[in-house]
Amino acid sequence: MFARAQIGAATRPTLADRPVRPEHTIGPVRLPAFHDPPIRSRRPPMPAPTAARLATRFPRPGRGRPHAAACALGLLLLALGGCGEMATLSVADGTGPRPSLPAPTSTLIPTVNIAPAVGWPPGATPVPAPGTQVNAFAVGLDHPRWLLVLPNGDVLVAETNAPPKPDDATGIKGWIMGLVMARAGAAVPSANRITLLRDTDGDGVADRRSAFLEGLHSPFGMALVGSTLYVANSDAVLAFPYATGDLRITAPGRRVVELPAGPINHHWTKSLIASPDGTRLYVTVGSNSNVAERGMAVEAERAAIWEVDLGSGVHRLFATGLRNPNGMAWEPTTGALWTVVNERDELGSDLVPDYLTSVRDGGFYGWPYSYYGPHVDERVTPQRPDLVASALVPDYALGPHTASLGLASSIGTTLPAPFAHGLFIGQHGSWNRQPHSGYQVVFVPFAHGQPAGPPVALLTGFLSAQGTAYGRPVGVALDRQGALLVADDVGNVIWRVSATRPASAP
Q: In the predicted model, what is the mean pLDDT of the chain?
């Protein structure tokens, strides 16, 4: 979900040579080098099916290790697919209220351009914007993804990764994607834990840590309503009793509502936000595929934001057609709910932009039948022109394949003027764009309840000059002092961005 890659002719010879830190792999998994000479065919090129359809044309190699012939074929397709496919537009062209949407680009298999996860060198940090500074709030975490700041200043961190997906790892495509995820640092087992961090002396560094909740199931979203902490596992929302200052919760969780999961559970991350009056929860539920290639039956109540009544536990679909919504925030001027959405893949490096949008009650946002309002995705069958006609156009594009996940309002920030009014966004970074996009924290300024201007980079430097990933930002949240906390699931760090202190007068 979070990362993929383009292996072009220029990168094939060195795939096996790029460093991958042991903590970001399971066992000795490495992508092999391509030592064989290139295969030249005199046959003219033919229109190729999508990778999903291609995979179904080959028998499954079995439940254990893929058959050697299937492995070789898969690697060959991976090497050849998308060679030469590259963005023709800048990320900025695919950003803002009116992004450029060129014609789709079709390749044999998706463009794959992984930034191998290497972690941060000693003493290195991301690069903060002018007027700000950054420090490590906490280090040595286990795949931290999401954050919740409690009223007393304690910080909850969901240390988590995807649940086991046995039915999603079969066939050639599944095996290849397993290797891809390992290279991106996304194949580690889930810690299934929420950790509490406490800064007791207010110096911007957590000096106390405790295992707050354990034995969870790929937890992600968290919300506190009164004395109840709600946690979104990948398969259900749980409720736990909480008292201010608690360092650990041992009480069993009460299941509030079951969430779509199952053996595939393609987009497993479920985010949470409570309504301002504390009577409802909103839950993001991503799709189970790219463009419904598994059929619409497995997409039941997915690609949507749920509204859950906390009194009854009854839920309804608040908005639909959102391929993979993640972070949510309330806009203070209008009171509208906003979210960031990861759009579909495999249409080329320039398509489709991820986006930031207000969420209209009952609104349909196109997936899988169209993108950015009326732009029909011809890969989807059967078509639904009736739904396309009602598809809402998102408010603000965030660039193609940026994997925009984290979202936080600027209310209460103490960062300088460029970051005073708007929304912070954690961009996890692309896997299938050449060149890379995302890998940063940006700020979208707002005026009168709407985006007002281009995004401003707040935290960069997550990519090395060699194209490796020191880190990948995910969740973002303001701490009680108004600084921005950023969960980095590759660096295993929580970064803290604060205003630069003015030099003291002589």
A: 84
Domain count, the chain: 1
Q: Which amino acid is at 125?
A: T
Kindly report the CATH number assigned to the domain that includes residue 378: 2.120.10.30
Secondary structure of 142-185 as H, E, C letters: CCEEEEEECCCCCEEEEECCCCCCHHHCCHHHHHHHHHHHHHHC
Q: What is the dihedral of CA 144, 146, 149, 154, to 10 degrees?
A: -20
For residue 199, the enclosing domain spans 127-499
59 secondary structure, DSSP code: -
Phi (first) and psi of residue 62, to 5 degrees: 120, 175
Is residue 218 domain-resident?
yes
Bond preceding residue 416 cis, omega within 30 of 0 = no
Query: Half-sphere exposure (CA, 13 Å, Cβ side) for 88?
Result: 11
Q: How, if at all, do strands 144-149 and 228-232 pair?
A: unpaired
For 298, other C-beta atoms within 10 Å of its C-beta total: 18
Note the pLDDT tens digit of each residue in 401-439. Answer: 999 999 999 999 999 999 999 999 999 999 999 999 999
Angle in degrees, CA 184, 190, 196, rounded to 5? 110
Structure pTM?
A: 0.83
Say which residue, 125 or 45, is predicted with more confidence.
Answer: 125
Residue 505 pLDDT more than 80? no
More confident residue, 440 or 501: 440
Q: Which residues pair with 134 in a beta bridge?
A: 497
Of 175, 164, 215, 135, give the one whose Cα is nearest residue 31: 175
Could you tell me the pLDDT band of residue 399, with boundaries at 50, 70 and 90?
very high
From CA 346, how far away is CA 325, in angstroms rounded?
18
Q: Are 425 and 346 in contact (CB under 8 A)?
A: no
Report if residue 401 sits inside a domain.
yes
Helices 171-184, 68-80: axis angle to 10 degrees equals: 60
**Residue 400 parent element (H or E):** strand 396-400
141 and 147 in contact (C-beta within 8 Å)?
no
pLDDT band at 10 (very low <50, low <70, confident <90, very high): very low
In a domain, 329, yes or no: yes
Res 170: pLDDT: 57
Whole-angstrom distance, CA of residue 134 vs CA of residue 126: 7
**What local confidence, expressed as pLDDT, does residue 190 receive?**
94
Q: What is the arithmetic mean of pLDDT over 462-476?
A: 97
Please check the confidence at residue 119 and state whether its pLDDT lies above 80. yes
Write out the two tokens for 379: 């890969």
Q: Which residue has the tokens 């179904």?
A: 56
Tell me the Cα Rg of the chain: 22
Between these two residues, 83 and 343, which has the higher pLDDT value? Answer: 343
For residue 211, tell me if it sits in a domain. yes
Report d(CA 75, CA 78) in Å as an integer: 5
Read off the amino acid at residue 229: L
CB atoms within 10 A of CB 113: 26
Q: What is the pLDDT of residue 501?
A: 81
